[in-house]
Amino acid sequence: MAQEVKVSKFAKFKGNLTKFFKEINSELKKVIWLSKSQLINNTVAVLVMCLFVGVIIWLLDLGFGQLTRLIYK
Fold first, then answer.
1. How far is CA 30 from CA 7, 15, 18, 38, 51, in A?
2. Is 33 helix (H, G, I), strand (E, B) or coil?
3. In sequence order, which ranges of 7-35 are alpha helices (DSSP H)?
4. Model confidence pLDDT, tens digit, residues 24-44
5. CA distance 49 to 55
6. Is residue 3, in this structure, part of any structural domain at all?
7. Which residue in 2, 9, 68, 70 is a FRET match for 18, CA 20 to 30 A apart?
């Protein structure tokens, strides 16, 4: 009969941790990273859209505030 080999909890943890980081490294190699120009273009687009939505919300707030003043005065 084969004897069971006892593995310490630390050794298991170390093995699992090593495997985890190897898998992370493997997955990061599959990622398609943006070029610098793509990153800048996407960042500008996000900032412009945030500004646009902020202005819309500000205008709606201003309009509803004026409407509320007209109704309750």
1. 33, 23, 19, 18, 34
2. coil
3. 9-30
4. 999 999 999 999 999 999 999
5. 10
6. no
7. 2
Distant-in-sequence, close-in-space partners of 42: CB < 8 Å, separation ≥ 6? 34
Residue type, 5: V
Based on the structure, what is the number of domains in the chain?
1
Q: Which helix (H) or strand (E) holds 49?
A: helix 36-72
- Structure token digits, residue 8: 């310490």
Q: What is the pTM of this model?
A: 0.58
Residue 1 lies in a domain: no
Domain assignment present for 2:
no
The pLDDT value recorded for residue 15 is: 85
